[in-house]
Design brief:
alpha+beta, five-stranded mixed sheet, two-stranded antiparallel sheet, 16 helices, 14% strand, elongated
């Protein structure tokens, strides 16, 4: 097949056979023109226009650099960066920063491909098919990228957190098949909601989900880096994490995850009884008031106490931590009943780590999964009614989800004025 060039493809009408080349090279031509316009804007004059003829800035065009490949999600194109001389500072393109060889979207795709099971040796072949034969990627460049992710992860773990106005936090230990399961270790994760409604991954460390020491290490690290105490922490019902919270964040409100509680109760029931029991259990955390939630609990208890006392005991155990969310705005209850803000991002991670046994080091596995979580973080949505978070952060009190009106005591009038 005759090689397609920018001139031949862009200036001619595309056909079905040449559509991909036409689209890719049209983008290439557009980006090249935008680069030229950046230089025109910088110098204040177009090509071949003398500086003396216009009120222009210092500097002049100096040809172009060598063609360089740039990988986009739609394929790989070639770009020639314009060169400018006579400037006090080096010309920096807003469109194409120095040394960039791929867009952010392509970079974000790489950890997903790796976690999906694509081995390092298969990268070059796969990326040639996705991005074209000219893609500036290879197995060696992927190895360098993995090393870079590990360095970035280490830097991220040491960042200061003093400026975060933390309102809510979710903590959970997630098991993934990525070189961690051989030691029965998990990834301990904390995600926070800030006063502006944004959510952020605050910590991710390998550790033991049922170990107080592992959770103590994580929480102390967050405290030592300046993170404030959350007003409410959502977590699973395991004693190790609550023991750690009592030591590091004793003033934080504590809310157990209802999803985990319901699963634990159902595990104490025979399968034939689980359907009706589930219907009763799922109604409890959706009661409009704490009193109504306790009434629904009592209905379950009355029905199952005699036949399945273990299930009833599981439901009633640690009840105070099951209803703490009623002390916060009802608009936020959807986010506060469970640890879903941690579970949801990891749903896709689990799907992509079935081939993770090839990981030799836990640190490498953790860094790669962290990179994927950073991609997921860009898609985190704000909490419902996030404008109320500032009120919660500033100490406003709620009862059954409604704000408590704090009445001021009457001001005493001086006797003389009263007279």
């Amino acid at each position: 097949m005759k090689e397609c060039t920018l001139e031949s493809v862009v200036t001619s009408m595309p056909t079905w056979e040449t559509l991909e080349d036409w689209a890719r090279l049209s983008v290439q031509g557009l980006l090249q023109r935008v680069l030229e316009e950046e230089v025109t804007e910088l110098l204040g004059r177009r090509r071949y226009k003398r500086r003396s003829d216009v009120d222009a800035n210092p500097g002049s065009r100096n040809g172009h650099g060598k063609p360089r490949r740039l990988s986009l999600m739609s394929g790989t194109i070639k770009i020639r960066r314009p060169r400018v001389r006579g400037l006090e500072e080096r010309f920096e393109s807003r469109l194409l920063p120095l040394f960039m060889r791929r867009t952010q979207e392509v970079t974000q795709m790489l950890p997903e491909l790796y976690l999906h099971g694509l081995s390092q040796g298969d990268f070059e072949l796969a990326l040639r098919g996705l991005l074209g034969d000219g893609a500036p990627l290879s197995s060696s460049s992927i190895a360098r990228l993995r090393a870079k992710w590990e360095e970035e992860f280490e830097t991220w773990q040491e960042r200061r957190l003093d400026d975060r106005e933390l309102v809510y936090a979710w903590a959970d230990g997630i098991y993934v098949k990525a070189g961690l399961e051989k030691d029965k270790a998990a990834l301990l994760v904390v995600i926070g909601a800030m006063s502006d409604g944004s959510k952020e991954v605050l910590a991710i460390q390998p550790g033991y989900r049922e170990s107080t020491e592992s959770w103590l290490k994580l929480l102390r690290d967050l405290r030592d880096r300046g993170l404030s105490v959350p007003l409410l922490l959502m977590a699973d019902g395991g004693l190790p994490i609550w023991s750690a919270v009592d030591q590091v964040w004793p003033e934080a409100g504590q809310q157990r995850c209802w999803n985990h509680k319901i699963i634990n109760v159902l595990n104490d029931l025979p399968k034939h009884a689980q359907g009706k029991a589930r219907a009763l259990l799922t109604q409890i955390p959706y009661a409009e008031t704490q009193e109504e939630a306790e009434a629904r609990r009592d209905t379950f208890v009355a029905r199952y106490r005699d036949r399945y006392p273990a299930a009833v005991e599981t439901l009633e155990r640690d009840w105070e931590r099951m209803v703490t969310f009623y002390d916060f705005p009802e608009q936020h209850w959807q986010h506060l009943r469970t640890t879903n803000p941690v579970e949801s991002p990891f749903a896709s991670v689990r799907l992509r780590t079935n081939a993770g046994k090839r990981y030799k080091r836990v640190q490498g596995a953790t860094a790669l999964i962290w990179r994927l979580l950073m991609v997921a973080e860009t898609r985190f949505r704000k909490l419902n009614a996030y404008e109320l978070l500032q009120d919660v952060y500033e100490g406003k009190k709620y009862n059954d989800g409604k704000p408590i009106e704090q009445t001021q005591p009457p001001t005493e009038v001086p006797l003389k004025e009263a007279a």
